[in-house]
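Hi all, long-time lurker, first post. I run a small reading group and we've been trying to get comfortable going from sequence to structure in the token notation. Rather than ask abstract questions, I figured I'd post a concrete chain and ask someone more experienced to write out its structure so we can walk through it together at our next meeting. Sequence below, copied exactly:
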Amino acid sequence: MKPTLFVLAAGMGSRYGGLKQLDGVGPNGETIMDYSIYDAINAGFGKVIFVIRRMFEADFREKIVKKYEAKIPVELVFQELDALPEGFSVPEGREKPWGTNHAVMMGRSVINEPFAVINADDFYGRESFKVLADFLSSLQNTENSYCMVGYRVGNTLSDSGTVARGVCETNEKDNLTGVVERTQVKRLDNGQVAYKDENDEWITIDENTPVSMNMWGFTPDYFKYSDDLFVEFLKNNENNLKAEYFIPLLVNHLIVNDIVTVKVLDTPSKWFGVTYAEDRPEVVGKLQQLVNNHIYPSPLW
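-- Answer (accepted) --
Happy to help. Here is the structure in token form:
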């Protein structure tokens, strides 16, 4: 059975000011997501599931699903604030979504095979989809063995300013032992990569240090763990209207308690995305260069 690609797109409408403005950054107006779906199909994924907000369903089916469904089976699931366990209700004043791991939980009813999780608006690169698909294809009928694609930090930086990165710590087997969120990471004037620590000091790290760009691989047992910890999360954050249930929160919990292993898969791919408005011309240029180098056809489809 081929693995499934689960795409986090619930924030898309609000971030882009409506799906009509999904940004065409490729030479023929392709979106970043077009390249992800293209790479996923070629890597061996068998199905794509988008998690979106229900209010965007009609727009999404018209502008997104219609584009892909002739190429790969596509399904939609919905992330809404009131998708909560029995006994819980939306706190008064809560407007913020419950976070990335809550979005993943929405796939439970339609996923029965190993699956990958990605952001809709990040460019991950074809090698990353290949190593992820290969690993997930080896996980049939297994549990508690997950993975993440670890990008070399030097391949993920922006020329426009600092970026936030989940810096990964691994053991001798390349299994993840923890992810430390560093909110300011950049390349210094001397060419070295560094992050700002709790004391406001710049700490240099190796160019190839793995960082998480939210590209994960799980098996369906992940949903049970998600449900269990979400109940704890809700109890602990009932008065915090902005707390979010993020994927690394659960992954760290499972690792620390020796419940799962998470293999960090190396990739030579360069990650990019539009973190700052100034990043857009750079993204356009990088995609054009990939086309010029015959990595991708143009038009893509």
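A couple of things your group might point at:
The first strand starts at residue 4 and ends at 8.
Residues 222-236 form the longest helix (15 residues).
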